[in-house]
Amino acid sequence: MRTLLATLMIGLFALTGIQEGHAQNAQTGKIVIIDYMEIQRNSLAGKDLLRQAENYRAELEAETQRLQTDVRQTEAQLTSQRDFLSEDALQEKASAEQQRLSAAERELRDRSNQIQLAARKAEQEMQSTLTPIYQEIMKEHGANIIMDRSQMILSGPGMDVTREVIEKLDAALPTLKMDVPDAASAAE
């Protein structure tokens, strides 16, 4: 009975020591903070990605404007031909134009999807490059957690390592290319 009681007491003390050790480790944890939005806005790769995305967006917008102009011109042309064409011929022309415009709209949607996919892939490349940078910075600062500023309410001085992350990312990934197939090869 005494042996059992002694064994239980030793186990209890050992458990208490383990729990205290975990509590001490939890108390000594260090957090550093990054601002991912700032990294995207101010890193060379982030700026490159944003510039390319804006250029592709402008191209899509211009193409959409051209398509809308084409629709208006086609409608005006069909309206002017009402007096000269039979109802069947007019209907046939309208149907052919509708098919052509539908195909153009589909191409625009497909192009937009390709651009979005390319942007996501480029973003993933940037994330892959950032992971070892985060690990290096955690090691340098003796941190065991990195949190994004958007998740913080209040932080003390010296916790924000965003500038360091940007400098290391600029060295590791100065450019970032969105790999979007050109419109001609995408249509094939």
Write a structural description.
By secondary structure, the protein is mainly α. The chain has one domain. The protein is 75% helix and 4% strand. It contains six helices and two strands. The chain has a two-stranded parallel sheet. Helix 3 (44-80) packs antiparallel against helix 4 (87-141) and helix 4 crosses helix 5 (162-172). The model is unreliable at 3-9 and 11-26 (pLDDT under 50).
Topology:
Blueprint: H1 2-27, E1 31-34, H2 36-42, H3 44-80, H4 87-141, E2 145-148, H5 162-172, H6 183-187
Parallel strand pairs: 1-2
Helix pairs in contact: 2-3, 2-5, 3-4, 4-5
Which features characterize this protein?
mainly alpha; disordered N terminus; two-stranded parallel sheet; 6 helices; 188 residues; rod-shaped
What's a quick, concise take on this entry?
The chain is mostly helical.
- Number of structurally distinct domains: 1
Q: Overall 3D geometry?
A: rod-shaped
Distance between the termini: 84 Å
Tell me the number of strands: 2
The DSSP helix count reads: 6
Structural class: mainly alpha
Low-confidence stretches: 3-9, 11-26
Chain-averaged pLDDT: 84
The radius of gyration computed from the alpha-carbon positions, rounded to a whole number of angstroms, is 31 Å
How are the strands of the largest sheet arranged? 1-2
User: What is the helical fraction, as a range of percent?
Assistant: over 70%
Portion in beta strands: under 5%
- Helix and strand succession? HEHHHEHH
Largest sheet: 2 strands, parallel
